[in-house]
Each structure stands twice: as structure tokens, then as C-alpha cells.
Amino acid sequence: MAEVKKYIAVDLGAESGRVMIGSVSAEKLILEEIHRFANGPIDEDGSLKWDFEKLMSEIKAGIAKAAKAARTQIWGIGVDSWGVDFGLLDAAGELVENPYHYRDNQTNGMREKAYELMPKRDIYENSGIQFMQLNSLYQLLAMRMANSISLAKAKDLVFIGDLVGYYLCGKIFAEYTLASTSQFMDMKTGKWSKAIMEGLSLPMNILPKVVPPGTVVGQLGAKIGVELGCGPIPVIAIGAHDTASAVAAVPASEGNWAYLSSGTWSLMGVEIPKAIVSDKTFEYEFTNEGGIENTIRLLKNIMGLWLMQECRRQWQREGEDLTYDELTDLAKEAEPFAGRLTVDDSAFLAPGDMPKRINEHLAKTAQQTTEDKGQIIRIILESLALRYRTVMEYLEDATGNKIDVIHIVGGGIQNELLCQFTANALGKKVITGPIEATASGNILMQAIATGQIKSLSDARKIARKSFELKEYQPQDAAVWEEQYRKTKK
Fold this sequence. Notes:
By secondary structure, the protein is α/β, with parallel strands linked by helices. The chain has 19 helices and 21 strands. The strands form 6 sheets. Strands 17-18-16-15-19-20-21 form a 7-stranded mixed β-sheet, sandwiched between helices. The protein is globular.
């Protein structure tokens, strides 16, 4: 009988967190959700921040439950999280303040300030990262320009997933895939960019040592181990950026494929052997982020299902609590192509009354406004699918490769209407699954780190055998092609 090893995945999203047990054999991965909790920003003196103490409390509760439920040796703990956000530690190793949330308005106007200090093209040449105002680079620049007391106290800057790892094992580090989202790193070298840090007068000395994914960084600390009822479990730096872990679990085989990690954000890209920093990737604003086994994820961040999530929250505040399935059913009955959104418009970035902002956008672009909930959701889903088509064409142009199939992973695959719209808009076969791609990749990377699995290729074979996959073929090709031509105009 094949050996089965168990691992704990701490999978942190911007809306919710999960602690899961993964049981891995040579043929299969079985996931068991142990603890799920809500996550989100808090208002602290007018700023959006993360309640890190509460986050750690939930994580510790989950690990304690998982250790009890496992009833056998646990071979590792891995933590993945969203990118860009970070905490600052003082000389005593204490968190100076709660980390800022990437949607906080401190970064408003910071990209423009950065370009005054260093030309935009020079920043791209020395990073290879997409220009988004939420990037760590603009967060740190905002703190520096505000003469932040917290920054003055800082000895170490630690990204969120790694900050959890630090609290678990006491080691300060920067896992490569998570660090790569910051725009502090030159993705052509995989090292911190001295040119960028000096060009923007940012403190390079607070950036930790970079470790590759699959590194055992330490052991669960004795004190926290007693608190949680755990033994000395290895803490493993997996692909700590959630998208890196999700892409590790893409059940792809050979051929030209692309991925779409679908959730609050949509991240569409391809896996390539080295960074592409060119006129085309600069023009298309592609980002080169670190991947597993010395790969690069050439991708673009797209606003994603955040638009739908925020609409639902606003309608809840107004007294109508519709589920995502109910909203999608209403969208199915709504008029096709009644409006189009520029989904990546910065007006949609912050939390708030999203239906109002959508109608303001429609009015601003000489389109018909609507109060119909199903119509608003359909406009969002169609606009996302058409945006995916644009980004796919950019990817093919920048890489010189024609994409044959797109793999969609993550919670967004539960919206089957969006998956079908994506196949229609792209005119390509779409394969969806797994839903819990990030946790799956987290566990599979731990199995690689312990030597149980040999390679990323073997991990993807296990993913193919472990999860139900669904295939979507393009429909209504002529209709979607006509709408795409209108969008391009």
C-alpha cells in the first residue's frame, strides 16, 4: 500500500481563510477542510488595515483542530496568502502596527510620485512587474513620504504569508513567489532591485533574505506547539503567494495552455522559463512573478469577482440578502450585452457602493444605467469574459505562442455562467478545477519539499487524478466575436 503523508495548509484569502489537512499518496491528494473563517479589513483611525492578532488567533485555532484531527504524524505546515501586503517588525521582533490593506487610499497618487523620482520604463526594466497602485512599492513609498513613525521603527519588512510563518517558527524570511509581487525585486535576477530601492529612496536594509519555494524554514516553536497541542512540525515555505500555489495545482499536461485563477481577483497568464521584459510586456502591463521550479508566471491582474462580491454586500446592507447562485440565476434571465464595463477602472478598487459606481461608469460612457440586479451581474460577467479575451490576445502576442486551452482554477469556477462566457469570448476550450487550487498547490509543494513527490510535473499528475474537472466548449461564436469587436472600438 502506498505511503500516505499528512500536511497542514494555511490558506489565506482577502475574504476568508482556511486551515486544511492534505493526505498525499503517490496517486492522489485528499483535502479535508478543518477550519474556515471570515477575513477582511478593519477601519483603524481612518485607514484600512488587517487585524493581524485576530488573523493569528483563527490560524492557531485551525492548526490546533487539524493536529487533533490528523491522528498521525504531520509532515509540514505551509502558509499561502495574497500578495503585496506586509508587516513591519521592530528591533525586538514585534509587529509595529497592523499591516495596511492593499485597498487603503494611502497609495492614491503614489505611482505618479514614483514616476517623478524614477522614469516608469526604468522601474519596469528593473522589476518586470505590472503597475498597480496597491503594489508594495507604492505602499512603502507612501509611508516614506508621510514620514511614517512605524517605518522609522522598522527593522524587517515581512510579507503577510511569511509573517504568519514567522509567528509560527520565529524565522524571518521572504519566500520568493510572495516577494516577487512587491515590485521591489528584479525578476530577471530574482534579487532585490538596488536600482529601484535607491531610485525611490526606500530602505533596502529592511528586506529579508529570499528563500526559494520548497524550503523548510524552521520548526513550529516549542511555546506555540504546547499552546496548540502540536509536536515540532516543520514549517515549509511553499509557493507562499496564493496564485503561485494555485498554478502549481493546475491539472495541465503538455501543450500550450494558460491559466486563470478566478476569485476576488482574476489572474490570467502562462508559465514560462524566464522573465520577459520587453516593449510588448511593458505596453500590455504584464507582470513577471515568481513560480515553482525556477519558472516565471507571466500574467495580468484583472479586477475579478470583486465587482459581484461588492454588489452583493451593498444589496445586503440595503436589506436584500441574495446568494451568489441566486444572483447568477437572475443574470441568466437578463438581457445579453446591455452594457460593458472597463473592469480594471480604479473607480472599482475600493470597497463601497458598487452598483452605484457601475451605474456612474455606464452613464459616463454613454450607456444605459440600470437598477435591475440580474442585469448588473450579467454586465459584470460579460465584461469580465471580454476582458479575458483581450488579455489572452496580449499574452499570445507577447509570447509568440498560440494558446490551445485555458485552465480555470479557484472558487470562481463555481460560477458556471462566467466559465461558459469565458469559453465563448475566447473561442477556446476551457477546463475548470480544482476549486481549492491554492490549498492543493500548498499541500503538493510541501510533499515536494519532503521528497514524497519528485517534481511539479508529478504534482500536476496527482491533481489530474484527484479532482473532478469540467470542460466548456465555445458557444455563440459569431455573437461574441461581434461584441468583442465593439469592445475593441
